[in-house]
Design brief:
Elements (H helix, E strand, L loop, with lengths): L9 H9 L5 H8 L6 E4 L2 E4 L1 H7 L7 E7 L9 H14 L4 E5 L4 H4 L8 E2 L2 E4 L1 H5 L5 H25 L2 H6 L7 E6 L3 E3 L9 E3 L10 E3 L1 E3 L4 H8 L3 H9 L2 E5 L4 E3 L6 H7 L7 E5 L4 E4 L14 H10 L2 E5 L4 H16 L5 E6 L1 H7 L20 H20 L3 E7 L6 H13 L3 E5 L1 H4 L5 H11 L15 H13 L4 E3 L1 H12 L7 E2 L23 E9 L4 E6 L18 E2 L6 E2 L3
Parallel strand pairs: 3-16, 3-17, 4-15, 4-16, 8-11, 17-18, 18-19, 20-22, 21-23
Antiparallel strand pairs: 1-2, 2-14, 5-6, 6-14, 7-12, 9-10, 12-13, 14-15, 22-23, 24-25
Helix pairs in contact: 4-18, 7-11, 10-11, 13-15, 14-15, 15-16
């Protein structure tokens, strides 16, 4: 029975559902796991993926279902809610189903967007643990990342203070790091705009190396990208050792291995490699691994979580970040290429309000009430915005994957508006389902579940957008034209020089192309809604993440450290001092 989501807040629904949440021991029995495969963390647990993968290696993979979306409003359109609702709906059909979602960042949780735990009756529990650190993966990433920065700054200080002979006596060789070519910054898991640029090392010669630096949000760390794509502990360790921290004065990379810190970084992350097991409010299993930030950090549920889920479940649902132009494109051409997994279906989450925004509706501003245009029927505005949905359908179809459009229902949606979206989606060759999972849980997601089951029964002619050996600039051109709808690509001289260097250096053969751009538009400009026409994608830089194996062309302006708004969530979060329960999470 669903909870009354119209009267109860998310944390109240979570509290009620958690009273009957399976314990780690109950999960072990229910999922047929061995005792050694379950690592308890209080009332939740991690799963030893290497043991499970080895034991189940000969079991056929389940159906593989990816969740994406149209270009969202700044509020998001409910991918996690849809993921959890679909799992609940498939569970109501009596199927062995589970999911993989990403761990929320403390930045959005304490800011405006919320916890990313879903909502209503499509909610992840235990909500407090999920929202406030879970089993510590992001803390492990922060510690490992910042340890590399400690090693870098200490080494620069010692090389400045000591002669070559004194360095040799201390068993150190001079790396001759260029202070103007430091590639890493510090990380913290909050939206702290005041830390975007800092000066460190102020003081005397023993107070570090004086230099400009700054902070990025923790989930943008290359270590998060590595966690998402690593396939084993050995692979994780190897990738950590290849992270480029800085460059020397001759332009050669200085890695974590050169700083002799990679092993200690891996020690911090030895537990983070195992996914965490939590639950929906209807008690289906959900794996949590890797994190958000679908630019540098790829923004995908991890390959490891999907590998385990495909063996454990007959239907495995995995979540990608942002819309199909970013999340699905990277899932399709990067994650699937690295994992070897082939998806059966992609669910495109859409909302009536987002389509109205793309049709020319007023700006949607987090923390402010929705304008009236989004609260009442407006078929003309909706119809003008539907091309954005059709564009995302076309992106998915280019991969050979079957698209299912999920209309994530809101109480303000009218019958005529829903019928219009359904008609256009079906004309574009997609299945379309209305889903009321927020209001009704699995019972409200049965239409979506049935559409997904039908799509999973069809053959998939999966194909990548481009061959891996294609030169970097040509890949960017293909992505810009075929996925974003651009007329072409323009490169700054600096970015093009970098791209040419990467193309000519065999060391970068096989590196994945991870585009960096806004998620709020198909273009590089967040203010261009709908399906922009007559534009060129400007690439201003190319970042290299050697540990993850990524080359990241940067289009437009993307901040690695978001800012905290004027009405952040932390103003409403508190603790009941009598029970210790956290209040106000959403």
């Amino acid at each position: 029975m669903a909870f009354d989501a119209t009267r109860m807040k998310d944390f109240e629904i979570a509290e009620a559902a958690e009273a009957n949440m399976p314990s780690p021991e109950e999960w072990r029995e229910r999922l047929g796991l061995e005792k050694s495969e379950v690592i308890p963390y209080g009332r939740i647990c991690k799963l030893d993926f290497m043991k499970i993968a080895e034991r189940l290696k000969n079991r056929p993979d389940g159906k593989y279902i990816e969740i994406t979306a149209i270009t969202p409003t700044p509020l998001g359109e409910g991918k996690t809610t849809t993921t959890l609702g679909l799992v609940e709906g498939l569970g109501r059909r009596g199927l062995n189903v589970g999911a993989a979602i990403r761990q929320p960042s403390g930045g959005p949780t304490m800011n405006i967007k919320g916890t990313a735990a879903g909502g209503g009756n499509a909610l992840a529990i235990p909500m407090t643990e999920f929202s406030l650190g879970l089993t510590g993966d992001i803390n492990d990433i922060m510690n490992a990342h910042n340890l590399a920065m400690v090693a870098l700054n200490a080494r620069m200080q010692h090389e400045r203070n000591y002669s070559d002979e004194e360095l040799a006596r201390r068993n150190l060789r001079r790396l001759d790091i260029d202070p103007t070519s430091v590639a890493m910054r510090w990380v913290i898991d909050f939206c702290a705009q005041g830390l975007r640029r800092i000066i460190m090392g102020i003081g005397g010669r023993m107070d570090g190396y004086l230099m400009e630096s700054g902070f990025d949000i923790a989930v943008s760390s290359e270590l998060m990208a590595i966690l998402a794509v690593a396939t084993s502990l050995k692979d994780l360790r190897d990738r950590i050792g290849k992270i480029i921290v800085a460059y020397d004065r001759k332009g050669n990379p200085v890695t974590t291995s050169d700083l002799e810190v990679a092993g200690a970084m891996c020690a911090y992350m030895r537990n983070a490699i195992n996914p965490t097991l939590i639950s929906t409010v209807e008690y289906q299993p959900v794996l949590v691994h890797a994190g958000p930030f679908a630019n540098i950090a790829i923004g995908q549920s991890s390959i490891i979580a999907d590998r385990v889920g495909l063996k454990m479940f007959d239907y495995h649902v995995t979540e990608s970040g942002f819309a199909a132009d970013i999340g699905f494109e990277k899932f399709w051409n990067v994650k699937c290429r690295l994992s070897g997994f082939v998806p059966n279906v992609s669910v495109i989450t859409t909302t009536i309000r987002a389509l109205k925004m793309h049709g020319g509706g007023p700006a949607v501003v987090p923390g402010r009430p929705l304008p009236e245009e989004y609260m009442k029927e407006n078929l003309e505005l909706l119809e003008r915005g539907i091309p954005n949905l059709l564009h995302h359908i076309s992106i998915v179809k280019k991969s050979g994957v079957k698209p299912v459009v999920c209309i994530n229902a809101f109480s303000t949606d009218t019958r005529e508006e829903i019928a219009m979206v359904r008609r256009y989606a079906e004309q574009a060759g997609a299945r379309c389902a209305l889903s009321e999972h927020w209001l009704k849980g699995g019972e409200g997601a049965l239409e979506l579940a049935d559409a997904v089951i039908d799509a999973c029964n069809e053959k998939v002619d999966f194909k990548y957008l481009y061959p891996q050996e294609m030169p970097l600039r040509q890949k960017v051109e293909v992505i810009a034209r075929e996925v974003y709808g651009a007329d072409g690509v323009s490169w700054t001289p600096e970015a093009e020089a970098k791209a040419k260097r990467f193309e000519s250096d065999p060391a970068f053969d096989g590196f994945a192309t991870i585009m960096v751009k806004t998620h709020l538009s198909l273009s590089h400009d967040p203010y261009l809604k709908g399906v922009p026409k007559g534009w060129v994608l400007p690439v201003r830089d190319v970042l290299v993440y050697a540990g993850a194996g990524f080359l990241c062309p940067v289009a437009g302006s993307v901040s690695m450290m978001p800012g905290t708004g004027s009405d952040p969530a932390y103003r409403r979060i508190d603790v009941d001092v009598n029970t210790g329960k956290v209040l106000g999470l959403f």
